[in-house]
Amino acid sequence: MYLMKVAALLQQQDRLEPSREMVRRRAIVPKPSEMDFANAEMERTKVLEQNIARAVGDYGPIYVEPGTPIDRNTMVSDLHRLASLIYVNRAVHCVSGTEFRHRRLVREGILLLSEMATCQNAWPLFIIACEAVDDDQRLAILDVFEQSRQDQRRRSSHVHIIQHMVEAVWNQHDLDTENQVDYLTIFDAVIRGVPFIPPFA
After folding, report:
1. Nearest Cα residue to 126 out of 32, 69, 201, 51
2. Residue 199 has what DSSP assignment?
3. Quick check: 99 and 133 in contact, CB under 8 A?
């Protein structure tokens, strides 16, 4: 009698198992509308990335002879384009940061910042500065921060905040010698560690 009851319970559980499995599967499969939206967003991101890459060109935005004056608005636009491609590489394509094409973008961004001497544009300054890996690049970035703070013609109160955050990212990169920590995880930790909203948020 007891064994029959156990067998009946096991049969009932077997009948319930497929329905439980279906519920479990249904829970992890996104709705078609959500998938369509995600695919459309990725497609739009790809098109924007291609347009920006076309505007930057194969050799970066510094395409005039040395000593030739460049319109500052053009330089700022180029800075935003480079920062956008760097961010997409890291956040969307998950590149490690050592790839040749990525390092070229970073190099061009730092050269452009050095050419500008000062920069009050918080977002591209932050994104490009965070990518500086060697001493020469970091010294060039620190020089831009210093000159930007001393620039009396423009509002520069946020520059020390950006520098503080960039140096925190550098410290994280230096500790993560084997690239085990995700790019966005580092950004998230640094931004959460600041007791105020960053100027580019």
Report:
1. 201
2. T
3. no
Phi then psi dihedrals of residue 6, to 5 deg:
-60, -45
Per-residue pLDDT reduced to its tens digit, 187-196: 999 999 888 8
Q: What would you measure as the largest C-alpha separation in the chain, in angstroms? A: 98
**Which tokens belong to 25?**
């599967």
Cα 33 to the center of its chain, rounded Å:
27
Kindly list the distances between the CA atom of residue 200 and the CA atoms of 48, 52, 136, 159, 161, in Å, as whole numbers in the listed order: 20, 20, 26, 11, 11
Give the type of residue at 2. Answer: Y
Q: Which residue has the tokens 């905040």?
A: 161
Distance CA 59, CA 40 (A): 30
- Put simply, whether the predicted model's pTM sits higher than 0.90 gets the answer no
pLDDT digits (tens, 9 = 90+) for 86-107: 999 999 888 888 899 999 999 9
What is the DSSP secondary structure assignment for residue 95, as one 8-state letter?
Answer: -
